[in-house]
Design goal:
Blueprint (H helix, E strand, L loop, with lengths): L3 H20 L6 H25 L10 H7 L1 E8 L3 E7 L6 E7 L2 E9 L1 E10 L2 E9 L7 E7 L5 E9 L4 E5 L2 E8 L15 E8 L2 E4 L1 H4 L8 H15 L4 H16 L4 H11 L6 H15 L5 H7 L10
């Protein structure tokens, strides 16, 4: 919707064009005047459409859903029962996208902006209508952010989840909703990003927010196969000769993460004893454990992982 000032100036400019054209109807320059009128009118139309398509600031609360649909480039539109709708618009070709929220067909929020919005899905927040919306900041590795929005009494962000390199995935889990993400705490550890080790995390919705879910994370039957032990041990043996140290750390680290995130830090300790058994290597083994744990403590789920594993991970507590 255009401001009153802009509508006034355009209306008077159009009046000028019409007056100019009518005064020159009976003179020799009437044909040229008609062309000038057409050109100026076209400029007005183009500039008006451009302004309306590029300027979210001009969009006023209370604007009807249908008017926005006909004015802006709409990337996504989602029904949110019982009375809300969400719409992602692209105001300018290379500008940020904006997430609009409507109630009963009228605009009630236009403050959510981001480089690109990827997912908008309805959420039931303990009886309060809500939505989850993810946005991407752009760039090679970063960043995905999830916004949990309650729509009553007015739209309000109640949780922001910074997922960094993980786009996340929403999925039903029983009667609940879960968010599956990848923890990239070890991104680019001992190698390029493409070779990063990582771990899966499941979060579930409770009290209007997503939390680390220990029940869904726990996998009591998690095991390491004999073949995996042999392969890791061979790699660790090569690393003792200063060959493929990074590869050995990554291979061992990935198995440790898989066990720890399954609540089986006890099996992670057993794996370490199997692949690094010699006492004369105690110094290098402790150096590895210290480096690994120091990095793991940087995870936003560190405290949850310690609790999941009975209060201690590889000898380290909270």
């Amino acid at each position: 919707m255009l401001s009153e000032g802009r509508r006034w100036s355009e209306r008077h400019l159009l009046d000028f064009c019409i007056t100019f054209y009518s005064r020159n109807m009976n003179c020799a320059l009437s044909h040229k005047a008609g062309i000038i009128f057409a050109v100026i009118t076209a400029i007005i139309v183009v500039s008006t459409d451009s302004a309306r398509a590029d300027d979210v600031d001009e969009l006023m609360l209370g604007t009807f859903y249908e008017d926005v649909m006909s004015t802006f480039e709409v990337r996504q539109s989602v029904e949110i029962p019982p009375s809300h709708k969400a719409m992602i618009i692209q105001p300018a070709e290379f500008g940020n996208q904006t997430l609009l929220i409507f109630e009963e067909g009228a605009l009630v929020s236009k403050t959510l902006s981001g480089h690109r919005w990827d997912v908008v899905e309805p959420l039931d927040l303990d009886g309060v209508p809500g939505l989850v919306a993810s946005k991407w900041s752009g760039g090679a590795h970063c960043c995905f952010t999830y916004n949990i929005v309650a729509l009553k009494p007015t739209p309000k962000i109640i949780q922001i989840l910074e997922l960094h390199d993980s786009p996340g995935k929403l999925a039903p889990c029983g009667d609940n909703v879960c968010l599956h993400i990848i923890d990239f705490t070890f991104a680019s550890w001992r190698g390029a990003f493409a070779n990063s080790i990582s771990a899966s995390v499941v979060m579930s919705l409770h009290a209007k927010r997503f939390y680390f879910d220990p029940e869904l994370m726990s996998k009591p039957d998690a095991v390491v196969t004999d073949q995996a032990v042999r392969e890791i041990r061979k790699t660790v043996e090569r690393a003792k000769q200063k060959t493929d140290v990074d590869t050995a750390y990554q291979m061992l680290g990935q198995e440790l993460l898989r066990l720890i995130y399954a609540g089986r830090a006890d099996k992670a300790e057993k794996l370490l004893r199997l692949v690094w058994p010699h006492k004369q290597d105690a110094v290098s083994k402790q150096a590895f454990i210290h480096e690994f744990i120091d990095r793991l403590m940087g995870s936003p789920y560190w405290n949850d992982l310690v609790l999941l594993n009975g209060g201690s991970i590889l000898g380290t507590k909270k």
